[in-house]
Amino acid sequence: MLEDTRIPDHFVEQAGWCEDLGSPFTAALLRRFAEDFDAGGPTHDLCKDWSGSPRKDALGLRIAGALHHAVLTGDAPDLAATYPAARYDWSMDDIWAIASAWLSAHMEHVRSFIKSPPQTNETRRCIALLPGFLHLADKYRMPMNLLELGASAGLNQNWDRYAYDGGTWQRVSTSNVTISTHWRGPEPAHLDTAPVIASRAACDLNPIDVSDEAAYLRLKSYVWPDQTERLSRLDAAAALARRTGVHVDQADAADWLARMLSERPQGELTVIYHSVFLVYPPRDVIAQIMQMIEQAGAGASANAPVAWLCFEPESLFGGSRASPRMQTRLKTWPDGENLLFNESNGHVTEVDSLLG
Questions:
Q1: Between β-strands 182-184 and 197-204, what pairing exists: parallel, antiparallel or unpaired?
Q2: Are 180 and 128 a contacting pair, CB within 8 Å?
């Protein structure tokens, strides 16, 4: 069992991150979790015996997700009436009076809910990856064989079908999904390039099928309730995924990637890509995946090139382990090109572009 102080400290720390990422509602809710834990309330009863790291496990977001899930499914109508979707002038005093009572009354249900880690399938990360994809399309001018790791619901498989708005630049699309952010620095090159996608494949240990309404509401529950733009974008991206038949294989990433790389086609560019995925596997598995990609690259040819495009923590590339920054990097074979495109935060609310 953890020392009690580690859990409320985590709630307060996570609240600060939520505040910085534009969710005052979730920040306020997490601070109530901390106060309630210290007071011996239902939050204390719920997670006092948590055996893992509350920070790594995102314990606070699991509990917040359980409450939002109850709101979205209609299981807590009184709570729903106090949430941001119903009240723009929400009051955390009013919310917590109902939320704490609901947690007490549904303790076993919430304990079961928080066993699973949060998944949000943040589609905004596609705008950080976009410059890399466009660079590849212009450089190789051949069909792409896309392989996504840790794909969650697979919404980022449709990156080429989304519209993009960086403020100073735009990329149009026929879909109604628009990915926007505050973009600083050079705009992406080759904005008019049309990538040719030969195939799309993806894997996840626990994939979410957005055509299953219950599974989709679970995914949606982890999006912060006061972030209406994110919620609307998720709805639109999920609707597009249903229309385009997005599929994610349930598989271990290392095993799946080994098989897919062994079958990679000639005459196509194989692109391995992922976003905020390599923070989750054990260190030995991370090393195994990276080595596997390097080995595939060593065997690449002009007729079957390999690219590795990722949006991951700076620390993965030798930077400070304390840095909160994420970086978009691209490595290609057989030419060995290695590029750093941009830096951002986990939700890509702003992008510092380093390369057009």
A1: unpaired
A2: no
> Does the bond joining 42 to the residue before it have cis omega, within 30 degrees of 0?
no
Amino acid letter, 182? H
Ordered DSSP codes for 23-40: -HHHHHHHHHHHHHHHTT
Can you name the residues that pair with 178 across neighbouring β-strands? 163
Rounded alpha-carbon distances, angstroms, from residue 151 to 31, 126, 186, 247, 299: 31, 12, 28, 10, 25
| Strand ranges for the chain from DSSP E | 144-148, 163-165, 170-171, 178-180, 182-184, 197-204, 249-250, 269-275, 306-313, 326-333, 338-344, 350-353
Which residue ranges form the domains of the chain, and what is each CATH number? 6-113 (no CATH), 125-353 (3.40.50)
Place of tokens 């390999």: 306
**What global pTM score does this model have?**
0.93
| Single-letter code of the amino acid located at 278 | L
pLDDT tens string 14-52: 999 999 999 999 999 999 999 999 999 999 999 999 998
